[in-house]
Each structure stands twice: as structure tokens, then as C-alpha cells.
Amino acid sequence: MNSATVLMQKLVFVAQLASSAVLYVLLALSVISIGVIIERWWYFRRRRDDIDALSDRLRKVLAKRDLAGARRLLEASPSVEAAIIVEALDWWAEGPEAVEQILVKAVRQRRKKFEGGLLFLGTLGNNAPFIGLFGTVLGIVTAFRELGTAQMGAMGNVMSGIAEALIATAVGIMVALPAVIFYNVFQKKGADLEEQAGALGNVVLASMRSAKEGANGARPARAREAEATAKPTAERVETSRRPEAEA
Fold first, then answer.
1. DSSP string for residues in the chain
2. Rounded to two decimals, what is the model's pTM?
3. 47-72 pLDDT per residue, tens
4. Which of 39, 36, 48, 42 is nearest to 178 (CA)?
């Protein structure tokens, strides 16, 4: 028996062991995937709130320049968006530009939390079918090896081995489907969270700019338009009176 034959026998033995191990690996990954999905669902479930209603209440409170009331309103909300705005309110006295930068920083810091587990789900969804295919290939190698050494009466055992090998591909696809589906769902939830936090931040920034204009004695737009209309009229009246005064 030459070295090539010995090597082939060892590879076939490894393939026999690995084809069964792949199924156990896929089952273990499936259990972990289900755990990640449940944890992510519970995370978003606990932090769910009506952000549109919260935005309206926040706008009304800030219109009264009641920062303490705005803070109490936001702290009563379980949402991540409210926590981001609470952090931004600490910089109210520094101006709109500082608050805007804090909003960006707060969203970036919390992104790790609301995107937790998505890397695992995305990786599993993309690669689980290939892991199953790998197990199928190993199983077919083993089956064909037995086919070369089996008698005609043992053909049924060889075919059953091929059928068992194909199960690995089916299991890989079964593991990948929920991972891909919930990866997309949770990614969309994270994008919605950032968008809603930005909307609440715009409410705060608009209130700050309005308060700043009021503090600087800015007049309403109608008053400015009325003054702009009256000024040319006064100039025309003054021009018409000049000839009489000179006469």
C-alpha cells in the first residue's frame, strides 16, 4: 500500500467524522441565532414608545422654555431616542451647534447597543448554506467511497448515505433563513431609531434657535414685512414735500 492510498484512507476517515460534525455545528449555530433574535426583540420591545406623540409634547414644553419639564418628559420615556435627547439638553446653554454635535455623538455611542448581534446574524445568514453544502460534499465523498468497495446488495446503504448527506444543505438553508429575515428587521429598526432621534433633535434645535432670536429682540415676520412696506411710502412722502419746503 503506497503513501497516496494511505493518505486517501485518512482523508475519507476525516470526511466521515466531519460530515456528522457539520450537522452539530449547524444545530449549535441555530440555537445561538434563536437566542440572539429573542434578545434583540426584547431589547426593542422594552424601548418602544410613541415618538410622534413624544415629539409633540416636547415641542409644547420647549415652547414654554421649560427645560426641567422637558427633561422630566424625556426621562419618563423608555426609548433610546429620549435618552439621546436628554444627553443633548445638558448642552443647551452652549448653543445649537454644540447640541447638534452632542446628538451625533450620542447616536454613535448607542449604535453599538441597538446594532448588537446583527453582525452575527448577517454572517450566519450568508454562510450557513455554505457550511451545509460543505457537510453535503463530505457526506457524498464518504458515500462514493463506500460505493467503490461495496457489493451490489449494499447499494441501498450507499444511497441512504447520499440522502443523509443532502440533509446538511437543507439544515444550512433552514438556519440561514431566520437569520437573514431578522437581520433585515432589526437593521430597519435601528435605522428608524436614528431617524426618530434626529427628528426629536430637530425639535430641540428649532426651539433653541427660536429662543435665541427672541432673546435678541427679533421681531415677528409680519412686523418686519410691515416695516419694509411702510419705509418706501415714507420716503416718497418726504420726497414730495421737499419742493414745497424749498419754495
1. --HHHHHHHHHHHHHHHHHHHHHHHHHHHHHHHHHHHHHHHHHHHHT---HHHHHHHHHHHHHTT-HHHHHHHHHT--SHHHHHHHHHHTTGGG-HHHHHHHHHHHHHHHHHHHTTTHHHHHHHHHHHHHHHHHHHHHHHHHHHHHHHH--GGGHHHHHHHHHHHHHHHHHHHHHHHHHHHHHHHHHHHHHHHHHHHHHHHHHHHHHHHHHHHHHTTPPPHHHHHHHHHHHHHHHHHHHHHHHHHH-
2. 0.75
3. 999 999 999 999 999 988 888 999 99
4. 36
Cell numbers 458515500: residue: 143
C-alpha cell at 137: 460534499
